């Protein structure tokens, strides 16, 4: 009896399927390995009593490089934050407050840089996340000129 030959292309299809399955498996394994990597590489820290600042998108952040102050229109953002401390009661950084001057109106305005020292304080439990505390105030101390009409030293309540 003569062996029947497989239809042309069938073996190639099986090989491609095996290759795709293998590639998918490798991707899953790589993702798991990355997730199991050192905690120091993550921006959010899983600790027994983590302390975070919550951003406009309701995401916890630890030592963020940037922080959006004007959630509604994006016309005020802290950038280039360099954290000097991140302690149990306060966190302090230096950076730049980029503020839209809104002249003649915000869509046509220019963003202007204002050097600033940022202090986060008054940690409180984060509602709906009882195991996490979040900073509830932010103090901006402008080291040069402050954006008009903001005072050189101003404190805001963080409501996120």
Strand content: 35-45%
Radius of gyration: 25 Å
Question: How is the biggest beta sheet arranged?
Answer: 8 strands, mixed
Task: State the secondary-structure class.
Answer: alpha+beta
Order of helices and strands: HEEEEEEEE
Helix content: 10-25%
Please count the helical segments: 1
Beginning-to-end CA distance, first to last residue? 77 Å
Query: What is the tally of beta strands?
Result: 8
Note poorly predicted spans. Answer: 1-7, 9-48
Mean pLDDT: 79
Shape: globular
Would you spell out the secondary-structure blueprint of this structure?
Elements: H1 10-35, E1 51-54, E2 60-61, E3 67-68, E4 76-86, E5 90-100, E6 111-126, E7 129-142, E8 153-157
Parallel strand pairs: 1-7
Antiparallel strand pairs: 1-2, 3-4, 4-5, 5-6, 6-7, 7-8
Properties at a glance:
alpha+beta; 160 residues; 8-stranded mixed beta sheet; 16% helix; 1 helix; globular
Explain what the structure shows:
16% of the residues lie in helices and 41% in strands. It is an alpha+beta fold and 160 residues long. Strands 1, 2, 3, 4, 5, 6, 7 and 8 form an eight-stranded mixed β-sheet that branches. The termini are far apart. Mean pLDDT is 79; it is low at 1-7 and 9-48.
Give a concise summary.
This protein has 160 residues and is α+β, with helices and mostly antiparallel strands.
